[in-house]
Amino acid sequence: MMDVIFDRGTFLPDCDLWLDPRGTRPFVFVSHAHSDHTGHHQRTILTDATARFMLARLGSSGKVQHVLRYGEGRDFGAFRATLLPAGHVLGSAQILIEKGGERLLYTGDFKLRPGLSSEPAESVQADTLIMETTFGHPKYLFPPAAKTIGRIHAFCRETLAGGAVPVLLGYSLGKAQEVLSALAGAGFPLMLHGSIWQMTQLYEGLGVVFPPYSRFEPEQVEGHVLICPPATTSSAMLENIHKKRVAMITGWGIDERAIDRYQCDEVFPLSDHADYSELLEMVDLVKPSRVYTLHGFADEFARDLRRRGIDSWSLTGGNQMEFPILE
Ligand SMILES: [Zn+2]
After folding, report:
1. pTM, two decimal places
2. CATH architecture of 5-139+272-314
3. Separation CA 41–CA 61 (nearest Å)
4. What pLDDT digit, counting tens, does each position of 26-81 carry?
5. Cα dihedral sign for 264, 266, 267, 270?
6. Distance from the CA of 68 to the center of ligand 1, in angstroms?
7. Which of 37, 143, 174, 313 lies most in the core, judged by the most C-beta atoms within 10 Å?
């Protein structure tokens, strides 16, 4: 079986390939362009969308880029690589590595529920599955997205009716566009923070269609639904909006303490990650003989799989910080 090593990123020594490492590495698969998965690398394997997002956010998407379409297999000497959609954000990919008759699938961040602004995830069978397990605890079962979206609409409607600005917090790449799509047809005037506006323009360049929106203007924000990244919560930008109600959009909203933790008025559990049932479903679909877990409840999920008779181990060991801003 192919060796799998973890050192601030997953490394496949038989392929000399890193999977989403931090820092700078010689040869890397970048699953998507969230900052905890990207770096200034020498050679990268990635999708066109991820390359565009990385260029906009980091100024570089690797000195040498191997841009692959979904489903397109490519030989890299020691191994053959095929990318599959991961359903996490636009352009997010899983990588299937084939070497000497053995198959290894690395999911990166993924979800199986269809989203509104990203490609639906796919799956394949593999001998080894390396999967993210952010929500790998049975308490994380998300309600249907349509129900959560209905609650977000009601929050916006009631806040506007009360003469306040509804502020929805979601990270700039992926979550904000999902929220924007979820507000299509509701008739709210929509305004986007600059960083979200920039990423949304890139999405549109890649063919995604959104409802009409404008870029944040302090003098004109009244009467609009404002979408901002979570980091703006204590910024002057929001401080200067005197009458507002703030909602965080995150899968961690399942937790009863989430409103206190995020110090906002509401938390809505809309996530770009798989919930516990989808993590189990992914394992059922891939039918691996060996599983490695990464991120979040990696230990717990690996233990749950072992109880189901699957050879499964956490690569990172221990829970990562609860309530991260980036999911
Ligand atoms: Zn991510």
Report:
1. 0.94
2. 4-Layer Sandwich (3.60)
3. 8
4. 999 999 999 776 778 999 999 999 999 999 988 877 789 999 999 999 999 999 99
5. negative
6. 19
7. 174
